[in-house]
Amino acid sequence: MLQKLYDWVDERVDITPLWRDIADHEVPEHVNPAHHFSAFVYCFGGLTFFVTVIQILSGMFLTMYYVPDIENAWRSVYYLQTEVAHGQIVRGMHHWGASVVIVMLFLHTLRVFFQGAYKKPRELNWMVGVLLFFIMLGLGLTGYLLPWDNKAYFATQVTLEIAEKVPFIGEATKTLLAGDPNIVGAQTLTRFFAIHVFFLPAALFALMAVHFILIRKQGISGPL
Amino acid sequence: MSEKRQQVSRRQFLNYTLTGVGGFMAAGMLAPMVRFAIDPALQASSTGEFKAVEDVENITEEPTRVDWEIDQVDAWYESTVTKTAWVYKDENGDIVALSPICKHLGCMVTWAGNDDYPDQFYCPCHDGRYYKSGENVPNTPPPEGLDYYEYKIEDGTLLLGPTKPRGEA
């Protein structure tokens, strides 16, 4: 049945080369943990991607209940966590995944750094990776405010005061982030939500695409 | 069938195990999320409570509009919502409480809402009409009669509960 469906599409659109291109490639021996157990260090990039997928999915589902409004944000989070089936789990996945993804990203960065895998011709991919790291930190920062509890509020207060300390453009940066020069409130929450849910993920997807295209184009770096 | 044993090639074996393990992981990941998303459909619907709306002795044979308030809990948002019914006593002295929601597209009907039809319910949106019994007037837009409110009478007071479609009444 599935095979027939696939054949029907394939006969018309010739999709086999498309996924073959993506999925069908040799894993070099030095990257395969079955050959050298120490090659598990090559898994961290993939694990980062895996956790990112969890974050995207759980985040999509959370927005079914969450409202980015100062009156209702905390109450909607409380509701989805206590009243909705498996709300605790879905929010837990997003909450813990946010930390795990940073850890994985960091381990991946360490592996690339200590193996010197960033060297020519892969400098460009290193730079894209660093940008991805910043975007991930931005996602963590903006997501932290969204439950609108005390911890979230005061953490953002601190963030904004750090931003304010930037020479010359500090004040403007703070106002842009918070939506108001003096208040951390309604506009801050909607802005952080928009950045967390639309702007940063868009940038994340674009850069991940570049990151993956480059690694396939240049191949993984050779053995040490 | 030939004598040859059905051999599972190494490639097949790996394909099956990897698909199985991968599917198991994906299911473990998605199951809570899907259950989370479909929760509203599985929540037990609150059995509509009955609220006192009017003294029975005040109810005449002329349909009268009664309004009352219920407390509505909408997830994290609680509010009081005003409900409306058209109430009268039929020729046997039984209470009839009709929902004002037009069965055509959900506008509000009014008793004698049109001067041309002083003894019918009238919907201003598309000229839908109902007889006093709540039955829809043929050849006007509504496909069926107005819903009933379930009612109880306690100590001479009329209590109204959830509405019921005509077919089940």
From TrEMBL, chain A:
One biological process term in Gene Ontology: respiratory electron transport chain
SUPFAM superfamilies registered for this protein in UniProt: Transmembrane di-heme cytochromes
Gene Ontology MF terms in the entry: electron transfer activity; metal ion binding; oxidoreductase activity
Protein's membrane topology: Multi-pass membrane protein
Residue ranges of domain Cytochrome b/b6 N-terminal region profile in the record: 5-224
Subunit structure: The main subunits of the menaquinol:cytochrome c complex are a Rieske-type iron-sulfur protein (QcrA), a cytochrome b (QcrB) and a cytochrome c (QcrC).
Record protein name field: Menaquinol:cytochrome c reductase cytochrome b subunit
Source organism: Sediminibacillus albus
